[in-house]
TrEMBL record:
This is 8-oxo-dGTP diphosphatase. Keywords: DNA damage, DNA repair, DNA replication, Hydrolase, Magnesium, Metal-binding, Mutator protein. The keyword DNA damage applies. Its cofactor is Mg(2+). It comes from Kineosphaera limosa NBRC 100340.
Length: 164
């Protein structure tokens, strides 16, 4: 398990990069990821829910916002509610988007992965590590960086905490 201060990993490619359009080959396949910054209270956040990954091995032990990949035919928000129910076992109420630097307000995680992140609070249930995680933990502003976040999450977490 990586410890705090460990160098966050660079995301492994799910499959080898394809040639670019300049090579007259197919474009790299974009991967749409959605994530949720679950806080204790959307109106006055004091705590953020983080989840520790168990897979793939290169990412195991690093912490992230619960979420996952959008499946074909799903809207981003449908994917978000499905992933949160599967992974954390709660129903959530969405708040505002956490605006990233890309034109569509997403955050670049790797050359192929982009994540859209919403603020949220729990509408029903107790968060648990059910699938793909082995621990969930509430972090305060003071403990936000006590866990090793995935590299792409660090600016997102900082943006969330900047509003507290
Ligand atoms: N869910 C999530 N994924 C993140 C975050 N930060 C980050 O770099 N990622 C990366 C890790 C993965 O390469 C990718 C999301 O894939 P995932 O494995 O969570 O997707 P999934 O739940 O749909 O799982 P699978 O069906 O692909 O196994 O985005 C984050 O905060 N949340």
């Amino acid at each position: 398990m990586p410890q705090t201060g460990a160098v966050p990993p660079t995301l492994p490619a799910d499959e080898p990069d394809q040639p670019t359009a300049d090579d007259d080959g197919p474009r790299p396949q974009a991967v749409d990821v959605v994530g949720v910054a679950i806080v204790d209270d959307l109106d006055a956040p004091q705590r953020l829910l983080a989840a520790r990954r168990t897979e793939p091995p290169a990412l195991a032990g690093f912490w992230e916002l619960p979420g996952g990949k959008v499946e074909p035919g799903e809207s981003w928000q449908e994917a978000l509610h499905r992933e949160i129910a599967e992974e954390i076992g709660v129903r959530i109420e969405l708040g505002p988007i956490v605006a990233g630097p890309l034109p569509d307000l997403r955050w670049q995680l790797s050359p192929r992965h982009r994540i859209a992140v919403w603020m949220a609070q729990i509408a029903d249930g107790e968060p648990q590590a059910l699938d793909e995680h082995d621990e969930v933990r509430w972090l305060t502003k003071g403990t936000l960086h006590d866990v090793p976040w995935l590299e792409g999450d660090v600016p997102i977490v900082d943006a969330i905490a900047a509003d507290w």
